[in-house]
Amino acid sequence: MSRQLYTFFRSSTSFRLRIALAYKRLDYEPHYVSLPKMEHRVPSYRDINPQGLVPLLVEGGRSLIQSMAIIEYLDEVYPDPPLMPKDPAGRAYVRAVSQIIGCEIHPLNNVRVLKHLKAQFGADEAATNAWYEHWIAEGLSGLEGYLAREGMSGDFCYGNTVTMADICLVPQIFNARRFNCSLDAYPKLLAITDRCMTLDAFRTTEPSTQADAF
Amino acid sequence: MSRQLYTFFRSSTSFRLRIALAYKRLDYEPHYVSLPKMEHRVPSYRDINPQGLVPLLVEGGRSLIQSMAIIEYLDEVYPDPPLMPKDPAGRAYVRAVSQIIGCEIHPLNNVRVLKHLKAQFGADEAATNAWYEHWIAEGLSGLEGYLAREGMSGDFCYGNTVTMADICLVPQIFNARRFNCSLDAYPKLLAITDRCMTLDAFRTTEPSTQADAF
């Protein structure tokens, strides 16, 4: 197949891509990259992705990296069904929601960072959990407040249609639940997540459904 | 004036916005938000930006947050001169470069994170500098490798024209220099930075030129 996704079941950025591809009904051949086995750092993988991270989407010989960039690429090349609003203000809002998660929450809490806290500061599990929870609370409270202030959310982050914003939100909520974070303060975000999980594109791609899940 | 930028001179995401506005010759009224004085956390600021971060661009009564989202908004509303390529593959590449910086480097190294390392782990200056340098080396080596692999860079990250990618790169290099990081391993990134700094939009907006600089 000409489209190949390098993915790890628990990687929330890989989960974003799996949702986007399923939502647009785009088939792909999965390549499972085990982060615990450090398969993303071996030379053969770095040859195709010098960053040494997942996900990576290879499409028509082109290597695409960075999940939000890939989602927008897919939306531009396969516009139906859309994942971005048509107007600049709507797009700015959807990108802002996505980036609150993709630039302010996820980067601080992914496995490589938690591992580095252990390596540099000798952080034990309790300490890395506290770190995780701190940035979840900081990030999600800002996001809940942003949705309330902008008044553009409905069933989903942007009105009643799925966008990139929901695709970033749901994997982050999955991740926060895995770390047992209290999410009671974010009723809008939880309602949107619940609504998304009624849709096949989200339900059939979540971590526990994946062939590499353990 | 109807356009207002909430900025801090040393904030690299504020610097991104200053470059983009200058490049597009868009005037604005600056509002200086002192991060050391925690002016971004006071209620009057959080009322207009619940995230409590800079930059914030208020334009025609609309509050815009997240620097990369704002740059794309400006590019869509004021397309000349452009900051994004016309084709989806080019845009995917420019967004990927921007996000390598905006999602993998900057979030781990900004002031609130370094402060939190001190608060949670008692990190002293040497330890926060080591943390900073680790993520600079990790991120910039991946980025230098990505530019080499893709073969799309020229005078700038994307051929010979300024894009959002350069606007994300230059403030990150400024920041890395402030922390005395060795940058010898990234000749492409340094050459692009030098080229950018010959342009007024970059030179007239860098931190030391700002009215709030100290």
TrEMBL record, chains A, B:
What are the annotated GO cellular component locations? cytoplasm
InterPro entries given for it? Glutathione-S-Trfase_C-like (IPR010987), Glutathione-S-Trfase_C_sf (IPR036282), Glutathione_S-Trfase (IPR040079), Glutathione_S-Trfase_N (IPR004045), GST_C (IPR004046), GST_Zeta (IPR005955), GST_Zeta_C (IPR034330), GST_Zeta_N (IPR034333)
Identify the Gene3D superfamilies for this entry. Answer: 1.20.1050.10, Glutaredoxin
GO molecular function, one example? glutathione transferase activity
In terms of Pfam families, this protein maps to: GST_C_3, GST_N_3
Transmembrane stretches in the record are: none
* GO terms classed as biological process: glutathione metabolic process; L-phenylalanine catabolic process
Keywords associated with the record: Isomerase
Return the similarity comment.
Belongs to the GST superfamily. Zeta family.
> Which protein are we looking at?
Maleylacetoacetate isomerase
Recorded source organism is: Pseudorhodoplanes sinuspersici
